[in-house]
User: Fold these one by one.
Assistant:
Number 1:
Amino acid sequence: MPSLLGIYDLPGDVAAVSRRLRSRGFKDVEVYAPAAFPELDEAVEDGPSRVRIWTLVGGLTGVVTGFFITIWMSNDWPVMIGGKPFASIPPYVVIGFELAILFGGLATLLGLLAVGKLPYGSFGKNDAAYSARFSAEEFGVVVECQDRDVREVDALMRSHDAKEVTVVEA
Amino acid sequence: MSPPPAMPITETTRLPAPPDSKINRDILRVMEGTSPGYWFLVALAVIGAHVAGGVWAYQVYAGLGIGGYTHPVFWGVYIVTFVFWVGIAHAGTLISAILYLFRAKWRNAINRSAEAMTVFAVLTAAQFLGIHVGRMWKSYFILPYPNQRGLWVNFKSPLMWDTFAISTYGTISIVFFYIGLIPDIAIARDRSTGIRKLIYTALALGWQGTSIQWKSHTRSVLHLSGLATPLVLSVHSVVSWDFAMSIVPGWHATIFAPYFVAGAIFSGFAMVLTVMIPVRRIYKLEAYITDYHFENMARFLLLTSMIVGYSYGTEYFIAWYSGVEPEATAFWYRAFGPYWLSTWIMIVCNCVIPMVFWYPPARTHIPTLFIVSTFINIGMWFERYVIIITSLSREYDPAVWGVYTPTLPELIILAGSFCFFAMFFLLFLKAFPVIAIAEVKELAIHEKAHGGAH
């Protein structure tokens, strides 16, 4: 199946064209952008990013770990001071807090890798449609379609101000 | 994939390859080529760091006695410098995380270099913990690891909190720095050759700026900012508790946490200005780091200077108003004792000189900005010197009073820390984009989409 690549200058056009393509039933749509634009967030996938779950789970694991190690270690090596309990919670809040941030941050990094599917592709080899112009200032929309749909997709891409539309050679 | 069909498109208009983005060229240019002046500075920094390393090696051989430690002052220049560098490290995360959450778009001209400074400043600060403890090969004792002695560390000690705070801060700063760099490394990857291309290809993780990649990237940066904002406030609070949790007059104050955080942001911003003014000039980045950015930084300096000044005032006021004699004596001693010069340098550099920024033209006058920010750096080092040394030198019992004077080896290691920091920063200039290119583009394309004016 051929893939068509449309080149755009503005994120609004990219969002519109990818929405149109997906509503026409094209499944394999990909968007390349030089920077982050909120209008492109739902261009290919609906709903918020699942990175948030990673951060939440990481942060909660950190809090639990922080309080667990401090309380457990105090009891494992008990030092009796004035008949008070071995563990004292207020100073351990600092450790629980710091580990929440540490684990949450590292889990966010892992979440970025897992949800963003990084590292992506094979080393040193980009997608056939990708080129250095998308790390300049242009946007690209790639869609895989049947031979019979090529004209329709071409027309649709141009109707949204595509600067150029080409067939991607795999 | 099957071979492509024979061009079924009616009118394929293959335009000539478009010119590369001007933003890319302007910012990547910083990484290209090196002048003799650059190598001179690198050589100076590397030699300086090694001289300090040599002095440190001698200190390991001869013992901490070569420092000016004298009873009762056993926290000297090393701890002062540690606190100083941790403070410097605060600007990066403040600019990256807090200003990100406040959607202050002006941050994107300076956030990358400030984040780099954060990473390098934490690295520099971390050296001083090892240097200060003397037998640095036993530093790992501070980590809670299972051992034959069946001992665990004391989590009720602020020093343990500090270990966790600083190592978390270092780790999160590196993660933040790297995540922000990934799209920019991809830009450099697409425009480099040879070994550089190989390294950037590895570091870019196959980044292509697809919708999913950007979406998870934006989310990650948002979440890291949310985590780093309380972190940056906690780190210097925890550092301040190293002092405030004790009963030493001059240290035992509830104001310490906000006072230290404000001071850290103050000194961090000053360091960003001191470093970025020459960088902007040498690499002709005036189009990206504008006077508007510097003016905003100057406003921040003015604000934090006043917070710091207010804190000084509060310390003195409470020392008098509380009626606690050791406290009042300690502060009298600070201002008029043998350390009077340090105290007055601190007050003049941190509270008096920055007041020039009330005068609007001073906020965009580059020589003024550079000179004032340098004075602030000096003043903030002396602030830590005053807090730590003067408080320790006179505690409650007059029988154990003493005066500490830094020795030459300590001062060489202090100077070496600046070389160490400068070395990393100079190498960073040539290794990674000094301005967050993708973020600058985001604004540029946004303006293009909305017809120039925002």
Number 2:
Amino acid sequence: MNVLLITPETYHPSSKVEADVCIIGSGAGGSIAAAKIVKKGYSVVILEKGPYVNQSDFTQRQKEIVPRLYEGSGAQATDDLSMAILQGSVYGGSTTVNWMTSLATPDYVLDQWVNQFKLNEYDLGSMQRHSKEVSERLKVHRVDELSHNPQNLMLLKGSEKLGFHAYTSYNNSVNCIGCGHCGLGCTYNAKQDMRLTYLQDALSQGIEIFTSTKASKIKYKSSSKQVIHAVMTLENDRFITFEVHTEKTIVSASAIATPLLLQKSKLTAGGTVGKHLQLHPVSGVFGIFEDKMYPTSGIPQSVVVDEYLNMDGNGYGFWLETPDLEPFLAGAYYPGMGIERREELKQLNNMGVIITLVRDGANGKSTVSNGEVKWRRGFNLQNGSFSLGLVPSIRYKISKPDLRHLLKGLEVSVKIALASGAKRVLTVHNQKTDIRNTVDAKIVHSLPSGPNQLGMFSAHPTGTSRMGMDTKSSVVDQTCEMHNYPGVFVMDGSIVPTAPGVNPMITILSMVSRAIEIGEW
Amino acid sequence: MKKFLEDLDRSQIKFFRKKEIPKALLIGETILGVSFQELGLEFIYELDSYIDGLDSYLRKDIHTLYTFISSRLMLIIKGHTHRSFDKMSKMKRDNYLRRWMESRISIFRTGFVTVKSLSSWAYYSLEQGENEIEYPGVTINREHITPTLLFGSQPLDPKDYLEE
């Protein structure tokens, strides 16, 4: 039998692999690219840094899953550690561990891309067509309203009471039983992630996928010849290296890993690679209720409150959802310390959590970003560390307008929780809050909210190799090909020009689908 | 503490240096509000195993942090005490770490957030921590009433719809 899925257990050492196209990363972008390109008759190889996993690996135990399936064992963060960045590093990428929310890119975001970045191929009509196609493949549907867990019902009812616009969301599941462990991979194969959709499509057409295999460098020889240095990790920290000789390279390693690989390979397009990082910063509130809420069970994010999505009139603002609250997230973000905190956490099942996600970039000049991913060495003032060798560095400073939106989101969340019957609500500020009435909700604006004064995280990094027509301020053209390096493409969250303002899986899939349609494939 | 650590199986420790173990336990005790005896050796094994899986440059930084946080100089400056970290009273240790948490200098808050996240990870990954927060836990091999989540107006206790 011809083995198409190559893991350390099935690999027969060979120093050279040849393919028409080599794709680095098997997340949303890499998977759909593979499925579409192989159909056109190209031979395709995927290199996936993370391990191969299937249903039986999803044990629902965070201590087994998080270190194995998340980038940096779940500890990836900005340099000042003020924002953890959760990303899957596994077969299927972040789609294997995401919380399933499947929303199309808002029309005003697409208008911005057309008007500001001249991305005429990504207008509403084109993107709607591709969003429809990918949503059908992922079996995206509106969540059954009877399936809202108490936490989502709380968000829905509270919003309705206060007159905020809220709706039942869409996700990519089939027969989901609501076990509440989406972030640990789907034990029931209900989540229609890349493993079960586009990677299956690609494998059935005959591609090869090397898992536990990291692309360490791309050697750019010409527009039709690149050599990728690959390192496969074996058991007991042993590894083997080989080369992939290819005519075209697609980098789909994520908005953090892609710029790092391009920089290491000196494919830096005038220094733009790694800049313009957007994170959709997230913070939250814990509402404490008389009734049980079971925040660790049920379908996460089945309700979206989008009342303030366009808060500033320029398309920037925030939206509210509820998390898949695994204990490690609750433990890391629940405010305070000591015995009092321990006693309060014992009431976790009576807590309802609302998270605020900010569409970042509202600094008045949305082409300027506060974030950057790059290799650094020496003394790092952000965390006091020192390194002689190069280490990955993620710098991000939330802008004042974005922070205002985030704090407004917390204020609105407090009001919603109280309107739904919370006895008290706590924000995740270091300075502990205990808000019992809506008048006091405004206090969130006066609390210290700098780095590590307000708990924040992100699961939506985008923008570090963004698409655009201006070769100085962008990295790839409308076909996702690098401006300065023909033959090398970027197809992942890196290309998203401005933060999409919705959970980005469908945006990434639709953009890559469109890029392949208009590219010379 | 010394007696407590007599049962420590050193072969299970890959990251921590001998001197760091009591410090990690006392930091965990202070932040989590769980006495080190109650945290138990499992806490150290879990913490050690998690940190050992991180990138090498992060492991180096974490060694530095545990040294820094319990150094005499820091204890004098931020703890206002000449006592060593292990000999401070619980209250003084609590005040000391709160000063890190609430410091106006961001690097101290960064250090605090790191040890808080690591300690919380280790404790709430253990069965003891999960039981304490009544985490419903794994649903594998349990029989479900499908669909599980027809909560209606009153939420179901996961124990009611999941049978052993």
